[in-house]
Write a structure and sequence with these properties.
GO terms for molecular function: 2-C-methyl-D-erythritol 2,4-cyclodiphosphate synthase activity; 2-C-methyl-D-erythritol 4-phosphate cytidylyltransferase activity; metal ion binding. It catalyses: 2-C-methyl-D-erythritol 4-phosphate + CTP + H(+) = 4-CDP-2-C-methyl-D-erythritol + diphosphate; 4-CDP-2-C-methyl-D-erythritol 2-phosphate = 2-C-methyl-D-erythritol 2,4-cyclic diphosphate + CMP. Its EC number is 2.7.7.60, 4.6.1.12. It comes from Consotaella salsifontis. The protein is α/β, with parallel strands linked by helices and about 240 residues long. It has a single domain, classed as Spore Coat Polysaccharide Biosynthesis Protein SpsA, Chain A, CATH 3.90.550. The chain is about 30% helix and about 25% strand. It has a five-stranded mixed beta sheet with strand order 5-4-1-6-11, with helices on both faces. A three-stranded mixed beta sheet has the order 10-7-12. The longest helix is centred in the last third of the chain and has 17 residues. It is globular and about 50 Å long. Bound molecules: cytidine-5'-triphosphate (CTP) and magnesium ion.
Amino acid sequence: MAGTVKAAAVIVAAGKGERARQTGGLAKQYQRIGDHAVIWYALAAFVGHQDIDTVSVVINDAGEEDFTRAAEAFADRVRIVRGGASRQASVRAGLSSLRDAAPDFVLIHDGARPFVDEALIARVLGTLATHPGAGALPALPVSDTIKRERDGLVGETLDRAGLFAAQTPQGFPYRMIADAHDAAAGFDHFTDDAAIAEWAEIPVVLVEGSAANVKLTTAQDIAIADQKLKKADVMI
Ligand code: CTP
Ligand code: MG
């Protein structure tokens, strides 16, 4: 990807982290795991990536001080943008902030996924390069059997064949996804960007995701991530 093609990243971190919140505590993206805040790890992966020129981070007013503390090391290497009430609105704000940079491609990533790595970013960028006009979605086949609940009981067992769990970073040609987000702004219910692409009839190619690349959602997820990083430290 080196050379002529420009790629940017949007990292969304404007959520309240309600499901992971301990009373009075920090939003999950600012909680500490290992030696750093959750958001630090995704920033390190994207800011440090040779093929990513520009990184926009989307935060909310409540998180301004927490972000400054968590991401001091990257302060002068990222654009900071205000998010909205939904993830969709926050991504749109991040995309708008890249208009002057006009990258060819943009990777959109959840700040709550600290374990994104160089290889996964390279897979998504590589897929964008070989599939002009398409998006790239990292995903893994669903391995659990999936049930639909009905009145507190198992209502139905779904056929999991062909089902994938979607991850981020999701990559797209910048102009296409920015236009799709603008058009979708009146319908604020999309939970990821591949769903907006689908709605806008942009084809999306599946890319192999990474089992490590979990989204930290609950307080337990954060505790497990912390233990994992501390164990990795001991092994080095
Ligand atoms: N996000 C955002 N703006 C919002 C909502 C979510 O930027 N208004 C971001 C979160 O910061 C997170 C990602 O989108 O990095 C995925 O969202 P989720 O895991 O749902 O995080 P929260 O919305 O913060 O958590 P919760 O739903 O438990 O409140
Ligand atoms: Mg949420």
